[in-house]
Amino acid sequence: MVLLQRKKNVSLAAELALRGVTKTHGKGQGAVVALDDISVILQKGTFTTIMGPSGSGKSTFLHVAAGLDRPTEGTVRLGGHDLAGLSEKRLTMLLRARVGFVFQAFNLMPALTVEQNISLPLRLDGRRPDRAWSREVVERVGLSSRLKHRPAQLSGGQQQRVAIARALVTRPEVLFADEPTGALDTHTGGEILALLREIVDADGQTVVMVTHDPVAAEYADRSVHFADGRVVS
To answer: Stretch 203-225: mean pLDDT, rounded?
Structure first.
């Protein structure tokens, strides 16, 4: 069992817990084990990087931990909820309310403004934006002067900031990031990593990030290293 805990001011509550998780693709002799009996606990208010070579299982881990894919065996608990035991409808509702996602491809709607892109998850969920919180999120990511711009008018780093703001506006308990700096230059990538570090320290946000970049580990509280579908360190 890998227990991940903040260096200071840590809450002992487990935000995310995977126990005995195995994920197998295919059946019979052609079956591929992507995750092999993984047990990991992530404490609330931590920044964790998931690292390893291509094909090591880190992206599969992220998808299973985030509820985007179901494990073949084992349990995934988010804030006390067993994701594997939920119906598709209840799982979708839970993820909308408690999980945020940031990807390497910014996945912004090109026809919408920055402001509209940020509020999109709330509108899709039928919720009214909390204007005070939305302003705070926009200020935190440094986009106050770009709200009326469209994605094509922004730099890559600014687009990723929009994606982070869009993920934060729903007040998620866990923010999952899959190679969020992979399409950015070194300087801009460092700014995004510093931003993620800031929201952990300032807001007590829990961040889980897949990355191949060892520099990213310097911003995290802990790193989990994968190889051949298993945790190796």
So the answer is: 92
Residue 100 has pLDDT above 60, yes or no: yes
User: Would you state the pLDDT for residue 58?
Assistant: 93
DSSP symbols for the chain = -EEE--SSS---SEEEEEEEEEEEES-GGG-EEEEEEEEEEEETT-EEEEE-STTSSHHHHHHHHTTSS--SEEEEEETTEEGGGS-HHHHHHHHHHHEEEEESS----TTS-HHHHHHHHHHHTT----HHHHHHHHHHTT-GGGTT--GGGS-HHHHHHHHHHHHHTT--SEEEEESTTTTS-HHHHHHHHHHHHHHHHHH--EEEEE-S-GGGGGGSSEEEEEETTEE--
Angle (CA) 165 171 176, round 5°: 65
Report how far Cα 123 is from the mean position of its chain's Cα atoms: 21
Q: What are phi and psi of 8, to 5 degrees?
A: -155, 155
Task: Please identify which residue in the block is written with the tokens 């929201």.
Answer: 199
Other beta carbons within 10 Å of 153: 12
Which residues have C-beta within 8 Å of that of residue 232, sequence separation ≥ 6?
52, 225, 226
The whole-number pLDDT of residue 1 equals: 45
Tell me which amino acid residue 216 is: A
The whole-angstrom separation of Cα 43 and Cα 225 is 17
More confident residue, 216 or 11: 216
Q: Identify the band that residue 151 occupies on the pLDDT scale cut at 50, 70 and 90.
A: very high
